[in-house]
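Write out this protein's structure.
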Amino acid sequence: MNVYSILSQTQRLRISDGAIAKLFDGCSSANRLLILIWSQLGDFDSLEYAWWLKRESQQIQAQGITIRAIGIGDRHAGQKFCEYTGFPQEWLFVDPKAEIHQQLNLYQGLSVKLPFFSRGQNTWLSLMLMCAGIGSPGTLSEVFRGYKGDKKAPQLIGDDEIVRAKPLPPIKGSFFKLAGGSGFQRPFELATLRLRNMTEVLGNFSIYVPQSAYLTQRGGTFLFDRDGNLLYEYRDRGILGFAENMSLPLSFLNDQ
């Protein structure tokens, strides 16, 4: 499989203008090209990945890296996603039927098929089982990391930042010092950010997930040099497993 060849020929709906355009439009001068194939735009992994990209945007720009992403959803979902995450609309494309995921042979997730369940019910059951770690390696340990903290990860919330994650009251970043200090990911810090994402998605679920058939579909990360050579790839194997190093999800950019 030549991943670059497949992606270079891919055309999808672009969120910024609603046009069917080539994924690689505007990428000819890229020093390096980072292509992100995301799961549902309402998936916690997609939202968290976009948060890291925004956090590290200056470093990414300084390295001359051009980003394009394809997520599962429609234009309305993409617009809502960009509004919430700050991800640029001109960088985001949508694939309602996860066809590019199938072309790249990305993990479709657990697929339970109980005869007395509808297709939709089986998909939801599969998703719940994956959230419990079945057919989704590393998910439970990643959930626990969000609560217990991680000294290998940076501090995620600034001391003066206010986090609003219903049903919790507004939380000031300095509160997390009480859980263990500063300068690293403190206990409950990541879990609070994930709760904020969950509140956002559940409050707008029909927008973020117009089609539930692909709830279990996972994504992938592909980094190319200016000549189209594949420098790095990572294929998700489970929920909350969108990066090889979840403590520093974008650390691979410094290794290439």
